[in-house]
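$ run holo --ligand "zinc ion" --emit tokens
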Amino acid sequence: MKKIDHIGVAVSSLEERLAFYRALGLVQEGSEEVPEQKVRVAFLPVEGTRLELLEPTAEDSPIARFIAKRGEGLHHIALRVEDIHAAMAALAREGFQLLSEQPVKGAHGSLVCFVHPRSTGGVLLELCQPAE
Ligand code: ZN
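-- output --
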């Protein structure tokens, strides 16, 4: 676990928020819908990592619920792992709370698993194993 894969930001509208990052000179790396998470995401590469903007595509999307409760803003930090099953097993063994028992599909064919903020000191942490 050596790198921050991306930082997730919850937004109501990708188009609206992308205007800000474009003004900063960041270039969007495409956008993708992730039906499993009920979000549309846009990645913005930043030296060594990426910002991930997440727009909900349904009212029962976790991102829609997050925005309804807390407003737009910083949502999660994603750490890249080489073996997500091993990382999940190591955390579970120590009694840390994972939000799914199996990895779920993330953007770009990655496998992801979220760790409950209760286990991390208030940060929603995503483990992210990129596609080969
Ligand atoms: Zn993410």
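-- notes --
The mean pLDDT is 94.
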